From TrEMBL:
The keyword Endoplasmic reticulum does not apply. Keywords: Ribonucleoprotein, Ribosomal protein. PANTHER family: LARGE RIBOSOMAL SUBUNIT PROTEIN EL39, RIBOSOMAL PROTEIN L39E. One of its GO terms (molecular function) is structural constituent of ribosome. Belongs to the eukaryotic ribosomal protein eL39 family. Residues 1-15 have a biased composition (Basic residues). It holds the Pfam family Ribosomal_L39. Residues 1-22 are annotated as: Disordered. Gene3D superfamilies: Ribosomal protein L39e. The lineage of its organism: Eukaryota, Fungi, Dikarya, Ascomycota, Pezizomycotina. This is Large ribosomal subunit protein eL39. GO terms for biological process: translation.
Length: 84
């Protein structure tokens, strides 16, 4: 009788679990690195330049700012499912 969870499913779950973590702090301190945490929410940037509502991410940052997306694969277990 086969198991409930196949080995391929288990591999996919393990990879998703390893990806779902914040960026290590030493990566941000590397020389010439552009991954930084930008503590400027959109409310602060609202009066500096106009932007569309589609530019706002769920965490309150602007989508066109490359400095705020430090881990694009971070997900919440209930909000974003793996689809397996």
């Amino acid at each position: 009788m086969p198991s409930h969870k196949s080995f391929r499913t288990k591999q996919k779950l393990a990879k998703a679990q390893k990806q779902n973590r914040p960026v290590p702090q030493w990566i941000r301190l590397r020389t010439g690195n552009t991954i930084r945490f930008v503590p400027f929410p959109t409310l602060y940037l609202a009066h500096t330049r106009p932007f569309a509502k589609s530019d706002i991410l769920d965490n309150g940052f602007l989508a066109d700012n490359p400095l705020c997306s430090y881990n694009a694969k971070r997900r919440h277990w209930r909000k974003t499912r793996l689809g397996i």
